[in-house]
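Notes from hallway chat w/ T.B., transcribed later so I don't forget. T.B. wanted the structure written out for a chain they're using in a teaching module, and asked if we could keep both sequence and structure tokens in one place. Agreed to drop them here.
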Amino acid sequence: MLNFNFQNPTKINFGEGQIKIISKEIPLDARVLLVYGGGSIKGNGVYKQVIDALSEHTWFEFSGIEPNPTYDTLMKAQEIIKRENIDYLLAVGGGSVVDGAKFIAAAALYEGKSNDECNDPWDILAKNVPVTKALPIGAVLTLPATGSESNGNSVVTRDGNKLPFNSPLVCPLFAVLDPTVTLSLSDRQISNGVVDAFIHTIEQYLTYSVNGKVQDRFSEGLLQTLIEEGPKALLPDTKENLEVRANIMWSATMALNGLIGAGVPQDWSTHMIGHELTGAFGIDHARTLSIVLPAVMKVRKEQKREKLLQYATRVWQITDGDDNARINQAIRLTEEFFETMQVPTRLSHVDLGSKDIDLLIERLEQHGMTALGENNDITLDISREILTQAL
């Protein structure tokens, strides 16, 4: 096992009716900015619960954060923050809203470099300028998927460029996870969330062995839970089952709160290539991952052989056949799971073809994504091979 430092500061409040606990989690003297997306929280009752919980607080609101939040939208929140002396953010929504709140929090206190005349907060993403200060954040999760409610990761888009940043300073101080709020989600949102959580787990598991037995077993349990529970959330007889929703919600959080990735190598090539598909063509994040991952598994079969065999045996219970046959069957079952979750597994499924690959490779090069994977050996040529495999 590799050396690691692990600390997760987010307090999780899990279960039905937990939104009211906001009143105790946020200091009464805080000036709170409630940030959310397109307004769905007003239709499903979440907004009412939140403002009731904030009844004794001074609060303001900022809405309109998109899926794949954009820099231009997020920067508009800075006007309210300055005008109203906001000192606490409350993100209510899915991963995009929480990601957006993280950038807002960092941008609000961004000072830039001393020799930088423009001090544009976009430099946090484009130039990897470290976050040194940020407003505190709380989160009410409405769409389990990204794990953003209990990590320091964020992804923001500007002019078609979708870039990530990470800082422990933007990790939410608390998060509310109430499975009942997920009952209003569309099938597409459910599918995206399950697949996103599944591939977050895979990115930290399907690499090479360092004898991290605890991490491996946790990861395998998460993968099996998502395989078992994910499809149930789409079936008429079980989609309203709160136990199903609770297991999916907790799996998505556990998939990316730092626990299963501590002390093990991580890949993330599927995500980096997927980000370019979203940035260039506007494809849902999870759907880019379901397209790219099977191709990564096929192209990197030799480099991931040991873990692919472990994945085949422990997650899919495949024990018959030679090594290649078991690996191929595991990849095929992974694709079939994605199909069951109603997401694409080929570029052709989203009307893209070989003519579009050049643009994606150009974007990868532009963003410095030229040495991806757990061994930093996925070159642009190999990324092209992966995208070609995904056709």
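Follow-up for T.B.: The CA atoms of residues 244 and 286 lie 20 Å apart. Might be a good example for the class.
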